[in-house]
Amino acid sequence: MDISLFFIVILSHILFDFVFQNEFILKMRFPKSKSYIDNKLKEKTSLRIKERLYKSLYSLSIKKRSIVGNVIHSTIHLIGIYIVSAMINLINGQAVYVPLYQVLLISISHFIVDELKSLLYLKDIKLIENIWVFWLDQLLHLIFILLILSICNNINLINILREKILIYPNGFSLNEKLLIVFINISTATWGVGIFIKILMHHLSSNNNKIDFKIRNWSQNNKVINKDTLEEDAGAPNGGFIIGLLERTFILVSIVINYPMMIGFILTIKSVARFKKLSNDSFAEYFIIGTFLSFIPALLLGIIIRSLFF
């Protein structure tokens, strides 16, 4: 049985949750600053507002913003499913039927999960750096997708997937193989990059004495030493971009069956970070990040190659 719709939804989720989600949507979904409500209060009244009223208006305002942000985000997901479907049709010439009511249910479930996450973050902003919240969020999305598609189509998706894996790769149609390739590429590049970023935040936040050079690795941004207010020169998001290129290079190396090229990447990374590796803490985080970057890229590259060769 063809389950291209399932893979279309998964690919759309990865693309529009990780790759194409911009800062504007993120700030709406997870409002942090009080400047928004401050401006609203100045517009509405010049009188002194009691603290209780201020807190109520502030709470109402940020919740409203998070709801609007998540509605926009879920709507983009809905449209994204049809964009991915059209893309596969364009590449392979085989259209996939995408029922609107199923896509609507998936988008609604996406909104519910994300709004709960937004409310959780508003209660404790530190949870943004919590790796377990990240995994729980992704797991809930996957469960809802499996449940909705299984119930609406009167099938057991898990059993079908298991049967296809048992006769791998012959159990998958060409459409499904193409979708798996795109899923693996998106996951290996952006998905793994965001996971590493959140994990490094999580690890560093649990450390009372944070080395700001390590924070540079975790935030993939310029380092600002809070004591001296000196900046360590470097490209904004340089670490994240390097990670994307690194994992793309590994995927290509595995797919073309030339894994020796991976040694070239390791050499470049080691030379570029040679001076910083004298810092024990940075070296530990560097090694953790390198392994977390290499292993998924290797495994997903092997899966891509095994689908066609």
From TrEMBL:
Keyword Repeat: no
The keyword Electron transport is annotated on this UniProt entry: no
Superkingdom assignment: Bacteria
Keywords, sorted A to Z: Membrane, Transmembrane, Transmembrane helix
Pfam families: DUF3307
Residues spanning the membrane: 6-26, 67-88, 134-158, 178-200, 248-266, 286-308
Protein name according to UniProt: DUF3307 domain-containing protein
